[in-house]
Design a protein that fits this description.
The chain is globular and about 50 Å long. The chain contains 8 helices and 13 strands. It has 303 residues and is α/β, with parallel strands linked by helices.
Length: 303
């Protein structure tokens, strides 16, 4: 079972008049990048006596997470459908081709029915790695296709074009319908910067009862639940990337779900820890992840 790490709130600031807790105050005063760098620096110092475990070993040590994902009202024919999920690859000068290639190989070895990519293929829109990361993803194939969304580190032109050239369909505020075992399954992919309820609702409108929202940030769980989307897949948090004893994943505390499964009303969310690293090449108590989700159903009342 995946480790579940939950956090209250969203990525936006707390409403006016609410007194921030110490952890929320920290996130409010510093950016996620600042907090991650500070905590990673502390982690490096802590881990130095153990051979720099977070740098030398853990960031390269892929884990495969296999977990059921519940969709309210899922048709019986879709129960057991297996979705492979990779996100936050961050191909860069500190995230090598080998790590991504091993993640792709591990995913293909699971033989998923459908593959989803959650964005952030490079870091800071670095065009030097757009082609290489797309090449690393090219071997991905599944009976019901390979689909992708973009993250906040991806550009809107070169990255989707490179993925499309490798037969990966990129959903940019768009919905596509799959026919799976005689039932309709809709994938709804939104851009990272698509945040207005009206814009998200436009993409969701007309979706089949069995629908999955692909949103890079788990902050969109609030909108997904309000719109009645039964399942949302996200990344972005890296699971915190640096998780320290007694402090947890401080750099990602302002998200409704940090890693693993979460629930809001009738909407289930799964947030992957991702594959790569950002800002500093280190992971502490938060290894990179290849996720396999098996769809299971429940009726709208949750029984």
């Amino acid at each position: 079972m995946p480790r579940l790490r939950f956090a209250r709130g969203d990525e936006e600031a707390a409403p006016a008049g609410r007194r921030a807790s110490p952890s929320r105050g920290l996130a409010g005063r510093f950016s996620r990048r600042d907090v991650l760098r500070a905590l990673a620096a502390l982690g490096v110092g802590t881990a130095a006596g153990a051979g720099g475990h977070g740098y030398w070993y853990e960031r390269h040590h892929l884990e495969i997470t296999r977990t059921p994902a519940t969709l309210s009202g899922l048709p019986d024919a879709l129960s057991g459908l297996r979705i492979g999920f990779l996100t936050d690859l961050h191909r860069s000068d500190t995230v090598p081709h080998d790590l991504i290639a091993r993640a792709v190989a591990a995913l293909m070895a699971e033989h998923p029915d459908l593959i989803v990519l959650g964005g952030d293929y490079v870091t800071d829109r670095d065009r030097r790695y757009v082609g290489p990361v797309a090449d690393a993803l090219a071997p991905l194939t599944a009976p019901h296709g390979v689909f992708a969304i973009l993250g906040n580190h991806d550009d809107d032109r070169d990255m989707p074009a490179a993925l499309a050239q490798r037969s990966i369909e990129v959903l940019m505020d768009a919905r596509t319908r799959l026919a799976v075992r005689g039932e309709a399954l809709d994938l709804i992919g939104i851009r990272y910067w698509t945040r207005r309820m009206a814009d998200i609702a436009r993409a969701v409108r007309g979706a089949a009862p069995a629908a999955i929202l692909l949103a890079h940030t788990p902050a969109r769980l609030i909108e997904a639940a309000a719109l009645g989307v039964p399942l949302m897949l996200s990344g972005h948090t890296h699971g915190g990337q640096v998780v320290l004893p007694g402090l947890g994943a401080v750099a990602a505390r302002n998200f409704p779900v940090i890693a693993g499964l979460g629930q809001r009303d009738n909407t289930t969310a799964f947030v992957s820890r991702g594959v790569g690293t950002v800002y500093l090449p280190i992971r502490i108590d938060c290894p990179p992840e290849v996720a396999i989700l098996t769809l299971t159903g429940t009726n709208p009342e949750g029984r």
